[in-house]
UniProtKB/TrEMBL annotation:
Top-level taxonomy: Bacteria, Bacillati, Bacillota, Bacilli, Bacillales
Modified positions (4-aspartylphosphate) in chain numbering: 58
Domain Response regulatory intervals: 9-124
Single GO cellular component term: protein-DNA complex
This protein's name: DNA-binding response regulator, OmpR family, contains REC and winged-helix (WHTH) domain
Keywords per UniProt: DNA-binding, Phosphoprotein, Transcription, Transcription regulation, Two-component regulatory system
Domain OmpR/PhoB-type: 132-230
Biological process annotations from GO: regulation of DNA-templated transcription
One GO MF term attached to the UniProt entry: transcription cis-regulatory region binding
Residues of the DNA-binding region: 132-230
Amino acid sequence: MVGEKKQVNILIVEDDEHINNIIYDVLTKENFACTQAYSGTEGKINLTHQMYELIILDLMLPGLSGEAFMKYLRLELNYETPVIVLSAKEKLDHKLQLFELGADDYVTKPFAVEELLARVHVQLKRNTNTKHALYEYKDLLLDSENISVYIKNHELNLTRQEFKILELLMKNPTRVFTKQDLYELAWNETYLGEDKTLTVHISNIRNKIKHYTDEDYIDTVWGIGFRLST
């Protein structure tokens, strides 16, 4: 079982290049791995290539707005990734609306980088504590913090990609993942249409589970991809 510490990835979605670069510089000095996006649409694309522990999101974005990005993240992807919103809008009703959409914190522009950094650490610490919650499905128990999976008290010996695939499925039990989604999120590489590698990994996961139970855990959605069995 692979036991390396998971790297903290942060997505910065801010169309002002100067502000985006300031945030990037501050966070990379703290040893965070940051991805820069300059529009809501670009940020949305980034979500298909990488899983993030935190998102810093401007609202006034070209293309897809910050509010629309939030709706996509929470309602379509069903991701619980913490989001710190950046905005010049200060009205209370607007802030309340953002919290209702699923924002976790709010920083008003202009802001001090020290304040933003402190809020980043608070959200990551809070999310780490909640993320240590175990994910359960039938007889499977997945611990994302310790990178381990158990079935009927037996630990499954999974590769890194196998674990990542199963983690994605268990964290999003109602979502059908396309082959491209699973490949790019698990391998962090561009999907070129050759799905043999992914199919072999899915088969390996199924076989390792089948060693302890006859129940189905992963369904093939023909022509689309995979999901947890219903």
